[in-house]
Specification:
The chain is 33% helix and 15% strand. By secondary structure, the chain is an alpha/beta fold. The chain has a 6-stranded mixed β-sheet with strand order 2-1-3-6-4-5. β4, α4 and β5 form a beta-alpha-beta unit.
Length: 219
């Protein structure tokens, strides 16, 4: 069992949440986390990298000056690769545009949960009693992060209807906001800390966050 301290807005411990490692994979599976990270990162590639060859660069093909009599080295057109503004010797062409690969649904779900386990093991999860603000205010949210010891990049996971928290956190540098049902291993590994409220964390572990999201989409 992992005992996760529950904090209030001033950073003081007010409760403890016991989490069963078995629900999150039992142990940190580094190979699975790397596979999930590489696949998600590759799926974000556009495949639009292109460079121009000497035939694609705008310009004349005229020989710059005659072959002999000028005292200069022999030279041809201005679009050759070794001249400034010329083309690329081995240009990138449209050989591949899709870098997408896939994981099975169960592997993807396990990777997401296992990434959360890795954060819990490293004490990088800041679980708040509640994340609620009467009015959207970035200053109050920044003060709460400082009180909790968050001094690096941070991922804030909340329910989609918690708009005041989303608006309060989205303008802080190094802080990203995501809905709890959209929490992924890629996002967790890209940030040092995870800030989440107790109710949202329990719904992610129990799986009720995904059930609620499916019912909303069906409606």
């Amino acid at each position: 069992m992992i005992e996760l301290p529950i904090l209030d807005s001033s950073g003081k411990k007010v409760d403890t949440l016991k989490i069963d490692e078995g629900l999150l994979g039992g142990e940190v599976r580094h190979a699975l986390l790397k596979q999930a990270y590489v696949i998600t990162h590759g799926n974000q590639r556009q495949g639009s990298a292109r460079t121009k060859s000497r035939g694609s660069v705008a310009g004349s093909t005229r020989k710059l000056y005659k072959q002999k009599g000028t005292g200069n080295a022999r030279v041809g057109a201005s679009r050759v690769p070794h001249r400034k503004g010329g083309g690329v010797a081995f240009s990138k062409t449209r050989t591949r545009e899709d870098f997408r690969t896939q994981m099975t649904r169960k592997m993807r779900q396990l990777a997401n949960r296992n990434a959360l386990l890795a954060k819990l093991v490293d004490s990088e999860v800041k679980c708040m009693k509640e994340l609620s603000f009467k009015n959207p205010k970035t200053q109050d949210f920044a003060a709460m992060l400082k009180a909790c010891g968050v001094d690096r990049t941070c991922l804030v996971a909340v329910h989609g209807d918690n708009q005041n928290t989303i608006i309060s956190a989205r303008n802080i540098e190094g802080v990203s906001v995501v809905r709890i049902e959209q929490l992924t291993a890629f996002d967790l590994l890209n940030h040092r800390f995870l800030v989440v409220d107790k109710a949202s964390l329990q719904s992610f572990i129990d799986g009720t966050a995904f059930t609620a999201n499916d019912s909303k989409e069906a409606a």
